[in-house]
Structures are given as structure tokens and as C-alpha cells.
């Protein structure tokens, strides 16, 4: 059989569509991808995902190359072709596919996007990328501001807080592919036993880990290949996020609230650590709550799952105070850019103040649900102080019945993980105790 | 390795029913190696033995973009089929001809590999199309047989004309 013209075009067209939805319509990549990949084969779906992640990681550099090669920017109604050019350019500069396959599949994708008339344009630009690759790469390397591949406002914010050197390390970690971390269900198996199962299944892992529950894989694998996944022996969860249940440290018989619980990874982990607590999981998003149910069912754990707004406890709370509350607050997600590179382009600088206000409001509301002597663990997947250390400092000023408790194992009152630290995501924890 | 000659439509030998392979030996493996060289040289994703005038039940495929996934199918049988989709197909025995053909979108195939070991494979997408296309070859069937007689006739005339021009 001869190679069809359309071979590989489907994955390129789908990637261009998903990128268009993110960059032009403000949708998240995790919303966009399922919409465009449903008709693709597993292999094409994986390639489409690789292309989208890669383009979003290196968007400024790719835009630089394209604007350098286009005489004038594409008209607004051809924005989908700009996305397609990003896909093509990314393959030629960053991926090791053959140039021929990359160019022909990307050009052919223009037909699938109903833009056959612009195939010549796509072909022309991509041939120029191929011809001028060395000069283009040199030009990219000489532009300092193009190296970090972050929006200016975010780069400035990170630099001003962390200083230039650490900022560089954060930028670099954000643009790398995140490793896959597993969380073993220590109710059902133990570390040594599960590592043996992984070895049996020929899945590579790293030996060291700061937590007994956490295992870092050498290569990401499909969850269906994980031994005991369907039976609830293991889940996928980043190392930093796995600290939530350890730090919350629920005891038997306690009433525990998991606020903003979806998709339920931390909910399940709290119960795996302490099956004999009464756990109530609340989230306002009914669709995402289904995933909490799914997770609990697979892991054979029980929690009371409530669809409710954290800001309106009167609608769902029975008036009984909690011993412990985990507040995994809505945040900028700037700590998980390596897993969601679209965040760099979806967030706006003005979002941060809005989020910080929302977090302060939820914190105050949750505080009122906590028993005297109870503990609230505040968590975000942000690396911005406005949402983290400054947020907690302001909280402490508002509440004189609050005391900050050292967060193990650092012993400091709060804990800012940076992306890539111990190969984990960027995360923030602060532990607050209510005076009796 | 030797590059082999690919039979072109309407060569009647393409209509031959291929015979089952009883022994997977070095001679067969040499044919397989030649077929890979022939297929890669022609930018193909699949090649049936029938197309190189070897009438035994064997085909090869590689649907990757960088020639990294060579597959060998000896005595192949499709054991399960599901779904339908229509896709543009081309064939190394029909240079420059492409046409839409409807196929099962997911298949399960059982065959022997180049060492004679039996394996089963679930295929979807391009590989599923390719496997169905190549197994047709082993049964003397061609992708244009799925088209209307009118379209098939037009393709035959086009290829005959091109063959004459090349001969001149």
C-alpha cells in the first residue's frame, strides 16, 4: 500500500484545532484535546498531544520564527493556519521526525481544515524553516527574552520574587515534560511488594522517594498497564500533591472536610492513610465530582461526596464542626505549568489578584467550620507569593485565634515547593491550628 | 538485499491466489528483507508478496513516519472486525492513483512473524487499513475492486496510457 497523502495529516490538523481553541478561544488544553482527537487512532492521538504540549511550551520561539518568515501576519480569519504553522515549525525545530513526513503531513492537514487554497503558503513557510534552520536556531539563541518561553508579566513576577538565578531554574523546569508519579494504596499493598509488581511488568521506576507511597516512573505509561490499577492498588498523583494527606494527618474517628475536592486524588489519599475517619468531600463542579466518585469506587473507599459551593456552606453543611480541613484552593496553577503548558497563555496578570481574594474568602469561610483545636491545611499548586505566603500572612493578621504549625519535614511554618524539586510539581502548604 | 520489481495494474499476476507458507526459513527471510528494501524505496507503508510476483501468503508493513516499526505477517488471518470508516488509499501497484475505500476501523489479526512465531495484534487507523489492503492482495483482490466499474475503467486507461508513454 502506498503512503496516503493524508497519512499523519489527521494528527496535525487535530493539533492545530486544539491550539486554536486554546490560543484564540481561551479554552484549556484538557478541554480541547478530547474534542478534536475522538476520531484519531491511539498513535495519532499521542502525537497530537505531543505536538500541542510542545507548541505551548515553546510558543514565543515558534512565533518568532513564523513572524520572521511570513511577509505579513495572517489575517484573523486564517488564525487556524497560524496554529498549523506552529505545529509544523515545532516539528522541524524541536522534534526528530523526518522533515519530509512532517512537511507533507502538515501541508495535507490544511485540506482537512478546509483551507486547501493555502497549502502552498504552508508548504512555502515550512520549506523555509527547513532551509534556514541553522540561521533561525542561531537567531533564537541570541534573543535573551525568548529563552524562557513565558509571558512577560509572569516571567517578571517570578524573577522579582525568586531572583534571576532561581527564576531561570523555574522557567526551565516549567518547559520540561513532567515525570509520572504513582501513589500506591498502602491499605492494599506496600512499597516493596508493588515495586516487585512493576519490575515483573517491565515498568522502570526510580528507587528513591521522599514518601513511602510515592514512586516515580522512568517513562510515563498508560494507566491500564499499571499492575493492579483497576483493582485500586495504585493511582497517578504527583509527589508534591501526595504530601497533602501526610501533612493533614487525619486520626481515627475524626470528622474531616476535603474542600474543592475534585477530581478526588487527595480525597482518596486521606482515606488510604486513615480509613477510620469520617470524610466529607465538597466541590462545586458536578462534572468533575463524577471523577471523585469514580476514584473512590475504584479504590474501594467511602466518603460523603457533596456538590456544593465552598462559599455557601449553609447549603450543604449540617452544622457539625470539623477536626481537620484540607483546603486545596482554586489558584493560578503556576506550579503545574510543566503538566499544563496552556496555563502560561490562558492566565492574565489581573487574574492573580482576583484569585487571591477568592482564596481569602474561602479560607475565612472554612475557618468558621473548624473546631477549636482543629487543623486546617491550606494548599495551592501555585508558586506566586500573593496566593501563598502573603495570603497566609494576611490570614494570620485577620484571625487572632490562628496559630501556624510547622510543616514537616522542613520545620518551617510553610512550605513552598518549586517545580522540579525532587522531580515534583510546584506546590504550597501551610498548616493552621485554631486555638481552643 | 535486492530491490524487487513491483507488478503494476492491470498485470494479471496480481489476480493470483497466494498459497499458505509451511516453513519459515532463511530463504523466506531473504525475500522479506528484499521486500522491505523495495517497500521503503517506493515510500510504501505495506507490500504484499503477490506484488513482487511471489505467490505465498506473506506481507510486510511499516506505518511509522521514520521506518521504525517494520512488521511481518506470514499466513495472516483477520479474526475480528469492527467499526467502519472510509479513507483515501493508494497502492504501489497503481502509481499515483488514490481513491476512497471503506474498511473496518478496528481489526484483530493473527499471523506468524519472521521467526515463525504466532502473534495476534489489534490494529486501528492506518495500520488497520493497510492490513486489510494487503490481505486482499494475497487473495488476488485489489482496492479498485471496491470502486464503481466506471471509476475502475478510468483508472485502468490512465495507467495503460502512462505505461505506453514510458515504453516509448
Automatic annotation (TrEMBL), chain A:
Gene3D superfamilies reported for this sequence: NusB-like (1.10.940.10), Sun protein, domain 3 (3.30.70.1170), Vaccinia Virus protein VP39 (3.40.50.150)
Stretches assigned to the SAM-dependent MTase RsmB/NOP-type domain: 170-435
Highest taxon, organism lineage: Bacteria
Catalytic activity as recorded in UniProt: cytidine(967) in 16S rRNA + S-adenosyl-L-methionine = 5-methylcytidine(967) in 16S rRNA + S-adenosyl-L-homocysteine + H(+)
InterPro entries from the UniProt entry: MeTrfase_RsmB-F_NOP2_cat (IPR049560), MeTrfase_RsmB-F_NOP2_dom (IPR001678), NusB-like_sf (IPR035926), NusB_RsmB_TIM44 (IPR006027), RCMT (IPR023267), rRNA_ssu_MeTfrase_B (IPR004573), RsmB-like_ferredoxin (IPR054728), RsmB/NOL1/NOP2-like_CS (IPR018314)
Keywords, comma-separated and alphabetical: Cytoplasm, Methyltransferase, RNA-binding, rRNA processing, S-adenosyl-L-methionine, Transferase
UniProt keyword annotation of S-adenosyl-L-methionine present: yes
Active-site residues, Swiss-Prot/TrEMBL: 381 (nucleophile)
Signal sequence coordinates: none
Localization per record: Cytoplasm
Coiled-coil regions listed: none
Major subcellular location class: cytoplasm
Entry EC number(s): 2.1.1.176
Pfam families the record matches: Methyltr_RsmB-F, NusB, RsmF-B_ferredox
Top EC class of this enzyme: transferase
GO biological process entries: regulation of DNA-templated transcription; rRNA base methylation
GO cellular component: cytosol
Cytoplasm keyword on record: yes
Residues that coordinate or bind S-adenosyl-L-methionine: 260-266, 283, 309, 328
One term of GO molecular function: RNA binding
UniProt similarity note: Belongs to the class I-like SAM-binding methyltransferase superfamily. RsmB/NOP family.
Function: Specifically methylates the cytosine at position 967 (m5C967) of 16S rRNA.
Protein name: 16S rRNA (cytosine(967)-C(5))-methyltransferase
Organism: Pseudidiomarina salinarum
TrEMBL record, chain B:
GO BP terms in the entry: translation
Co-factor requirement: Fe(2+)
Recorded GO MF terms: metal ion binding; peptide deformylase activity
Entry EC no(s): 3.5.1.88
Catalytic class of the enzyme: hydrolase
Domain of life the protein comes from: Bacteria
Record: residues binding Fe cation: 91, 133, 137
Catalytic residues in the record: 134
Cofactor binding note from Swiss-Prot or TrEMBL: Binds 1 Fe(2+) ion.
Gene3D superfamilies noted in UniProt: Peptide deformylase
UniProt KW Iron keyword: yes
Alphabetical keyword list: Hydrolase, Iron, Metal-binding, Protein biosynthesis
Keyword Amino-acid biosynthesis: no
Reactions performed catalytically: N-terminal N-formyl-L-methionyl-[peptide] + H2O = N-terminal L-methionyl-[peptide] + formate
Physiological role: Removes the formyl group from the N-terminal Met of newly synthesized proteins. Requires at least a dipeptide for an efficient rate of reaction. N-terminal L-methionine is a prerequisite for activity but the enzyme has broad specificity at other positions.
Family from the record: Belongs to the polypeptide deformylase family.
Name the UniProt record assigns to this protein: Peptide deformylase
Naturally occurring in which organism (per UniProt): Pseudidiomarina salinarum
Amino acid at each position: 500500500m502506498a503512503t496516503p497523502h493524508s497519512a499523519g495529516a489527521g494528527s496535525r490538523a487535530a493539533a492545530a484545532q486544539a491550539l486554536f481553541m486554546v490560543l484564540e478561544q481561551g479554552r484549556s488544553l484538557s478541554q480541547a484535546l478530547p474534542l478534536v482527537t475522538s476520531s484519531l487512532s491511539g498513535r495519532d492521538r499521542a502525537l497530537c498531544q505531543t505536538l500541542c504540549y510542545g507548541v505551548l511550551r515553546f510558543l514565543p520561539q515558534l512565533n518568532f520564527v513564523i513572524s520572521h518568515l511570513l511577509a505579513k501576519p495572517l489575517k484573523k480569519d486564517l488564525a487556524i493556519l497560524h496554529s498549523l504553522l506552529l505545529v509544523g515549525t515545532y516539528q522541524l525545530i524541536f522534534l526528530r521526525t523526518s522533515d519530509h513526513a512532517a512537511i507533507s503531513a502538515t501541508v495535507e492537514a490544511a485540506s482537512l481544515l478546509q483551507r486547501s487554497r493555502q497549502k502552498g503558503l504552508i508548504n512555502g513557510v515550512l520549506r523555509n524553516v527547513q532551509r534556514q534552520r541553522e540561521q533561525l536556531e542561531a537567531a533564537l539563541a541570541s534573543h535573551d527574552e525568548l529563552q524562557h518561553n513565558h509571558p512577560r508579566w509572569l516571567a517578571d513576577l517570578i524573577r522579582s520574587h525568586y531572583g534571576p538565578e532561581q527564576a531561570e531554574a523555574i522557567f526551565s523546569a516549567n518547559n520540561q515534560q513532567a515525570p509520572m508519579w504513582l501513589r500506591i494504596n498502602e491499605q492494599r499493598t506496600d512499597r516493596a511488594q508493588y515495586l516487585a509488581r512493576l519490575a515483573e511488568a517491565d515498568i522502570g521506576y526510580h528507587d528513591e522517594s521522599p514518601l513511602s507511597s510515592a514512586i516515580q516512573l522512568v517513562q510515563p505509561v498508560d494507566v491500564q498497564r499499571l499492575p493492579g490499577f483497576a483493582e485500586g492498588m495504585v493511582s497517578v498523583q504527583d509527589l508534591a500533591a501526595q504530601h497533602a494527606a501526610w501533612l493533614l494527618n487525619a486520626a481515627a474517628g475524626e470528622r474531616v472536610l476535603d474542600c474543592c475536592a475534585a477530581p478526588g486524588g487527595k480525597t482518596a489519599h486521606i482515606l488510604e492513610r486513615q480509613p477510620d475517619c469520617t470524610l466529607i468531600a465538597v466541590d462545586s463542579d458536578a462534572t468533575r465530582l463524577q471523577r471523585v466518585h469514580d476514584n473512590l469506587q475504584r479504590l474501594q473507599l467511602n466518603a460523603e461526596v457533596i456538590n456544593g459551593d465552598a462559599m455557601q456552606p449553609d447549603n450543604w453543611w449540617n452544622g457539625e464542626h470539623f477536626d481537620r480541613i484540607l483546603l486545596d484552593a482554586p489558584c493560578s496553577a503556576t506550579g503545574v505549568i510543566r503538566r499544563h503548558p496552556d496555563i502560561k497563555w490562558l492566565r492574565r496578570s489581573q487574574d492573580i489578584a482576583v484569585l487571591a481574594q477568592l482564596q481569602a474568602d474561602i479560607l475565612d469561610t472554612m475557618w468558621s467550620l473548624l473546631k477549636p483545636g482543629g487543623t486546617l491545611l491550606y494548599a495551592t499548586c501555585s508558586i506566586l507569593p500573593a496566593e501563598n505566603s502573603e495570603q497566609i500572612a494576611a490570614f494570620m493578621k485577620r484571625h487572632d485565634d490562628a496559630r501556624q504549625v510547622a510543616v514537616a519535614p522542613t520545620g518551617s511554618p510553610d512550605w513552598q515547593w518549586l517545580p522540579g524539586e525532587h522531580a515534583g510539581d510546584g506546590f504550597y502548604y501551610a498548616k493552621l491550628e485554631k486555638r481552643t | 538485499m535486492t530491490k524487487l520489481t513491483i507488478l503494476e495494474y492491470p498485470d494479471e499476476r496480481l489476480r493470483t491466489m497466494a498459497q499458505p507458507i509451511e516453513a519459515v526459513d532463511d530463504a523466506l527471510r531473504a525475500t522479506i528483507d528484499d521486500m522491505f528494501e523495495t517497500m521503503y524505496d517506493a515510500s510504501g507503508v505495506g507490500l504484499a508478496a503477490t506484488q513482487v510476483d511471489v505467490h505465498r501468503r506473506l506481507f510486510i508493513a511499516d506505518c511509522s513516519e521514520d521506518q521504525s516499526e517494520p512488521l511481518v505477517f506470514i499466513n495472516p488471518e483477520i479474526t475480528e472486525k469492527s467499526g467502519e470508516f472510509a479513507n483515501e488509499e493508494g497502492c504501489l501497484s497503481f502509481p499515483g492513483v488514490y481513491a476512497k475505500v471503506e474498511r473496518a476501523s478496528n481489526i484483530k489479526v493473527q499471523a506468524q512473524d519472521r521467526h515463525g512465531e504466532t502473534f495476534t495484534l489489534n490494529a486501528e487507523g492506518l495500520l488497520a487499513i493497510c492490513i486489510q489492503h494487503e490481505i486482499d492482495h494475497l487473495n488476488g483482490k485489489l482496492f479498485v475492486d471496491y470502486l464503481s466499474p466506471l471509476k475502475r475503467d478510468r483508472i485502468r486507461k490512465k495507467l495503460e496510457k502512462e505505461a505506453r508513454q514510458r515504453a516509448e
